[in-house]
Automatic annotation (TrEMBL):
GO annotation, cellular component aspect: plasma membrane
Protein name: Solute carrier family 10 member 7
Organism (species): Rhinopithecus bieti
Similarity annotation: Belongs to the bile acid:sodium symporter (BASS) (TC 2.A.28) family.
InterPro entries found in the cross-reference section: Na+/solute_symporter_sf, Put_Na-Bile_cotransptr
UniProt superkingdom: Eukaryota
One Pfam short name: SBF_like
Length: 67
């Protein structure tokens, strides 16, 4: 399997490796009070995004049964 095909297949793992490498090279971005504002993004935006994505995965038939 060629490298590009392998990277397309394992895109999530490649993204994780790049995120870890970026955090190792420039850790000041994710520090409290830094540009990413983790005190806000982790506690509010990340949790809201997780619940929103969970809601999107519900089948409409299930929602009609609940309502």
């Amino acid at each position: 399997m060629r490298l590009l095909e392998r990277m397309r297949k394992d895109w999530f793992m490649v993204g994780i490796v790049l995120a870890i490498a970026g955090a190792k090279l420039e850790p000041s971005i994710g520090v409290n009070g830094g540009p990413l504002k983790p005190e806000i993004t982790v506690s509010y935006i990340a949790v809201a995004t997780i619940f929103f994505n969970s809601g999107l995965s519900l089948k409409t038939e299930l929602l009609n049964a609940i309502l």
